[in-house]
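Hi V.,

Quick status before I head out on leave. The structure for the redesign project is tokenized and pasted below; the design run finished overnight.
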């Protein structure tokens, strides 16, 4: 046999003997430290090989399940700027509706209550938004957005923002502002959005300007460049609480008319602005209601199912916002059955209200949630009258009667 053939035979024999020895060692009982270590190494190697043989796709994926659980019942709520009331309302709503993975509301800081409409229409992850009640009136005129009144529905009317029209001494009434330069603050603010709509509905043509209010207010002291500044925000406003204005500068009244059906009657009083409104005097104005709006997803989608769940939580937990301490006082005025003029209520909420009405015992006292639009409107009107004339029952009753007369006239 040649030398290289002998070498091959020797190597094969050696490998066979070594394999037999290893197999015997793995099967034999442990007899010493060396054997234990060998068995341990063999077991570890066998375990590693087993893991490699199991396809990765077949292993339980807990992260995927966790991701699904967190996202399946999370509702994105476009609120507003960090310093504004909408974000406070959104934060309180999130706190009360929170139920772990079963329900989570995620308040979102946005560019403002005006841009929330675009977020609700187009931004990924946004299912609800706080917007103003007259938003549909504005966007119905935008040819790029079709059918907005059907795509966006409402759940509830929230806090009011009062209209403030601050004028120079020569201005005595709204009609004196016709043709004059009026500043509505910068584009995107509440005043720049609602203000021109209100003047258009009142039939008063003005020269609308959109400069920073801080600049316009300084200019008003020196010249007649601006006849007035218009503000839309919850009273009182800080710029009118500090400093002194020369005699004659004032807020002017805004009468409530049939053309202003998106708005609510309101007052500015001495208690709001002691330096500008004499004691005992009230300035009639309007309030722009903020609306909790939702996107009307198709009924067979996960997003729609999520919003139905949101409605159930809101319906059941709203009383906590209205009765427990630590929440904004205006939650007490929220009535889920109240109508928002010009808007369509989200159908799952209508269904939920009607179901609650059917389940309620006939003998039970009338609750704050009711299905009749008349009663809902009356409840909302009484609540607004209470806000407009706190502590004055006679004035509240007068405002309420005005509402009834207005509604009756509209039905004729």
């Amino acid at each position: 046999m040649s030398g290289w053939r002998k070498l091959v035979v020797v190597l094969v024999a050696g490998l066979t003997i070594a394999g037999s020895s290893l197999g015997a060692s793995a099967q034999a009982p442990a007899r010493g430290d060396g054997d234990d270590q060998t068995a341990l190494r063999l077991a570890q190697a066998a375990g590693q090989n087993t893991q490699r043989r199991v396809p990765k796709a077949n292993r339980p994926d807990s992260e995927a399940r966790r991701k699904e659980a967190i996202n399946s019942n999370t509702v994105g709520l476009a609120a507003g700027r960090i310093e504004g009331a909408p974000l406070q309302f959104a934060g309180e709503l999130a706190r009360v509706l929170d139920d772990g993975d079963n329900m989570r509301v995620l308040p979102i800081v946005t560019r403002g209550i005006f841009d929330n409409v675009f977020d609700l229409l187009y931004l990924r992850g946004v299912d609800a938004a706080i917007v103003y009640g007259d938003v549909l009136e504005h966007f119905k005129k935008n040819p790029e957005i079709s059918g907005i009144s059907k795509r966006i529905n409402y759940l509830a009317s929230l806090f009011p923002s009062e209209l403030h029209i601050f004028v120079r001494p020569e201005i005595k009434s709204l009609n004196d502002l016709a043709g004059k330069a009026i500043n509505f603050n910068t584009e995107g603010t509440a005043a720049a959005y609602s203000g021109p709509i209100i003047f258009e509905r009142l039939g008063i043509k003005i020269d609308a300007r959109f400069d920073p209010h801080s600049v316009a207010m300084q200019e008003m002291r020196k010249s007649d460049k601006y006849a007035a500044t218009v503000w839309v925000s919850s009273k009182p406003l800080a710029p009118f609480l500090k400093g002194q204005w020369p005699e004659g500068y004032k807020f002017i009244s805004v009468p409530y008319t049939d053309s202003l059906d998106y708005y609510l009657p309101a007052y500015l009083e001495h208690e709001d602005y002691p330096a500008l409104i004499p004691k005992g005097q009230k300035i009639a104005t309007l309030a722009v209601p903020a609306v909790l709006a939702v996107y009307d997803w198709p009924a067979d989608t996960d997003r729609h199912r999520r919003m139905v769940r949101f409605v159930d939580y809101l319906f059941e937990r709203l009383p906590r916002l209205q009765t427990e301490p630590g929440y904004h006082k205006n939650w007490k005025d929220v009535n889920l059955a109240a109508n928002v003029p010009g808007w369509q209520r989200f159908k799952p909420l209508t269904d939920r209200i009607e179901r609650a009405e059917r389940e309620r015992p006939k003998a039970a006292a009338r609750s704050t949630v009711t299905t009749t639009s008349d009663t809902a409107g009356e409840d909302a009107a009484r609540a607004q009258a209470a806000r407009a004339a706190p502590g004055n029952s006679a004035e509240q009753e007068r405002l309420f009667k005005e509402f009834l007369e207005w509604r009756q006239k509209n039905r004729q």
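Above is the designed sequence. Strands lie at 74-80, 104-109, 128-132, 152-167, 181-183, 207-209, 228-233, 250-251, 264-269, 282-295.

G. will cover questions while I'm gone.

Best,
W.
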